[in-house]
Amino acid sequence: MPLTNLEKYKLVLASASPRRQQLLKELGLEFEVRPADVDEFYPENLGMTAIPEYLAQLKADVLVQNMADDELIITADTIVWKDDKVLGKPADKTEAVTMLKSLSGTQHQVITGINLQSKRKKISFHAVTEVWFDELSDQEIDYYIEKYQPYDKAGSYGIQEWIGFVGIYKIEGSFYNVMGLPIHKLYQYLKEF
């Protein structure tokens, strides 16, 4: 395995996201899943890239106080940024419809903040992906929400699902970042850890 520098660590992914777990497994890494349960609130004065980095650090802060000497904790948070505000996870169908209508026919950013932390070292970084949606009909939005229940996804959508196939016509940046983990950038930082 190329990441031999990580052999001295027990990796911990502080996320219940099945997408993040799948992407990390695809790197060939073995890790424990230990979700960090935090209220995802942040200071209002934070900007687009600072918000997910702050939230990733918040998740790390919960776990590092009890971490073992040989553990490396990976935390992440992903936001959708549109018109200078965060589109978080929708609370219900009405909110999901509103979010998807606001994304329809427009461009937005997906930002993931990552925190890598051991007892001796810490690295924080982020990745930004520009995403362009085609116009979505009310029928398409309703179909997607009913079939895929995107209530655990920032911005009410998953790029790897039906709506990504039919609605997203262009991205600039990492596809995997839109799924919740900028895997190429993460790999580069893990090589240096």
Quick rundown:
The protein is of the alpha/beta class. 35% of the residues lie in helices and 26% in strands. It contains 7 helices and 7 strands.
Primary descriptors:
193 residues, single chain, 7 helices, seven-stranded mixed beta sheet, hydrolase, alpha/beta, 35% helix
Distance between the termini: 15 Å
The CATH architecture is Alpha-Beta Complex
Our Rg estimate from Cα atoms comes to 17 Å
Work out the number of β strands.
7
In round numbers, the mean pLDDT is 95
User: CATH topology, what is it called?
Assistant: Maf protein
Assigned CATH class: Alpha Beta
**Beta-strand proportion:** 25-35%
Structural class: alpha/beta
The string of secondary-structure elements, in order, is EHEHEEHEEHHEHH
Uncertain residue ranges: none
**Helicity, as a percent range:** 25-40%
Major sheet, described briefly? Answer: 7 strands, mixed
What is the number of independent domains? 1
The number of helical segments is 7
Shape: globular
